[in-house]
Amino acid sequence: MNSITIKEVPYNSGKTYLTSSKLFNEFLYFPYRLYKNDKMWVPPLLMDERNTFNKKVNPALEFCDYKIFLAYKDKKCVGRIVGIINKKANQIWNRKFIRFGWLDFEDDFQVLQALIGAVEQWGRREGLEKIVGPMGFTDMDKEGMVVEGFEKLQPMACYYNPAYCPKHIEKYGFEKEVDWVQYEIPASQPIPDKVLRINNLIANKYNLRIVENVSKSELRKRYGRKIFTTLNAAFSDLYGYVPLNDKQIDYYIKMYLPFVDLRLTCLVVDQNDEVVAFGISMPTLSRALQKAKGKLFPFGWYYMLKALNKFEYIDLYLNGVAPKWQNKGVHSIYYAKMNENYISLGSQMAIANPQLETNQASHIWTKYESEVVIRRRAYIKQL
């Protein structure tokens, strides 16, 4: 039996990763080799992956410690994992958790044992009590292992894993912590008359309006911070959520809002022009990313640009309703407006980003023809 060797990607003297080092590149490119023949895997952009682990770029690393581990067998890399200690999350939720993420490994239980074992060992040294994952540094990162829906092409913003992964995780002793579900909704279906009538009543009763006729620049400058303030409030009670700070908000405004399509975005504001609810969606980029193979150049940008002008399949990325509006049906207003635009653009199908199965706001989809097509799970285990 060949033994498994674990290597840690080293820090440099500045306590940040050498994102151009040989071992870091091994970490970065490993899934490209592992999943090269898997038609369901969607490669991330390598540039974004590097930035995620760059303390000068990603403000979440100011309150997260992490270690990257690689597994080797016969001098060949056979797996990778990232251990994460989110100190702010542990403080807010009064927990002693270590997270794991970026877990990819060959179909070999011993490889999983070695990878998880490395993270567990670090967690015990730090006095932590439980290990949970897959999760990222924050809730804006990918989270949840696929346990149902392996036959579905994964959206860009989601983890991918083969069916053997949850089997090995459960064999190791992990148990379910929480599940996220993803709904698929036919985008061309008519908006129910009852929904339209109720939406009009709600908007008139509370003096709400949909933001229209704004430029991308105005959206970003006038509403960017308000969107993420509402997101912070909307997500505050959801599992493990840590409010985004000002640096993180600026980071995500810069990362996401320049690329939004205003036809696929809806903001609902009150009489003071405060965002009470929002929905942001985009044409799916999954096939374009597969063609780009993680790189924008020389041809990746062409595939991405082409995909951004196709509206047949839509990914619902972010949505939220301020807490005091959550029981007033406001969430239906922004989705109905987006649904109206999907119809005019000839869209056929939309898939929602992962939503906690206990999140009552996700029940909006039950008013439409919809189906849960992917289920993701965070697993937990005592250290």
Could you please describe the fold and organization of this structure?
- There is one protein chain.
- The protein is an alpha+beta fold and 383 residues long.
- The protein contains eleven helices and 14 strands.
- It has helices at residues 22-34, 46-52, 87-92, 109-125, 164-172, 193-206, 216-235, 246-256, 286-292, 300-307, 331-345, and strands spanning 5-8, 64-73, 76-86, 97-105, 130-133, 145-148, 175-186, 209-210, 265-269, 275-283, 313-321, 349-352, 355-356, 371-382.
- Strands 1, 2, 3, 4, 5, 6, 7, 8, 9, 10, 11, 12, 13 and 14 form a 14-stranded mixed sheet that branches.
- Helix 9 runs antiparallel to helix 10.
- The model has no long low-confidence stretch (mean pLDDT 91).
Brief overview:
This protein is of the alpha+beta class. It has eleven helices and 14 strands.
State the low-pLDDT regions, or none. none
Rounded to an integer in angstroms, the radius of gyration calculated over CA atoms is 21 Å
SS content category = alpha+beta
β-strand percent reads: 25-35%
Number of strands: 14
Question: Mind summarizing the main beta sheet?
Answer: 14 strands, mixed
For this structure, the quaternary state is single chain
How many angstroms separate the termini?
27 Å
N-to-C order of helices and strands: EHHEEHEHEEHEHEHHEEHHEHEEE
Shape category? globular
Q: Please give the share of residues in helix.
A: 25-40%
Number of helical elements: 11
- Arithmetic mean pLDDT: 91
List descriptors.
globular, 11 helices, alpha+beta, 14-stranded mixed beta sheet, 383 residues, 25% strand
